[in-house]
Amino acid sequence: VFQSAIADQLRLFGIIGTRLAPVLPLLVLTIPLAIWLCVTALRDVPWTLRDAIRVEGGTWREELRSFAIPVLGPNLLVVGLLVFIMAVNDVTAGAVMMSSESTRLLPATMLLVTGDLTYPSGRVAAMGLLLLIPTLVVLFAAPRKILLLVGRTYR
Fold first, then answer.
1. For residue 98, which of 13, 15, 30, 155 has the smallest C-alpha distance?
2. pLDDT tens for residues 86-96?
C-alpha cells in the first residue's frame, strides 16, 4: 500500500522508471531504522572523554582523532552498513518503482525471474550470493556491535 501511493506520486512527476525512483521510498523506510540505531549507539558513548579532551584544550582535530573516529566510528559504520543492507534487500521498492529490466534492483530482478524457467538457474544463484555476501560480512565482522545496537548485551 505504501509503495503504490509513492509510485503514483512519482509517476505524476515523471520519475518512475529512473534510477532516482527508489530513493524516496527507501529513505522513508530506512531513516527510522537509522535514527533508532544511532540513538542506541550514541547513548552508550562515554561523553566524558570528549569533555576531557575539550578541558585539556584540544582542538577539533584532536577531538576528531582521539574521540570521534575511535569511539563513534565503529558504531556509526555498523549502523550505516545495517541500513544499507536493509535498503538493498527491499524487494517492493525495486519491483514497483523500476519499470525497465535494465534499471530494476537486484532483489526485484530475483523475485521476477525465479518463476521463469527459461532463465538460467546459475545466474539466479549468483544473484542470491551477491545479495547474501554483504549481510554475511557484516554479521561475521561485528556481531557484538549489532547485538549492542539492537538492545541485547553480549556480556
1. 15
2. 887 777 666 66
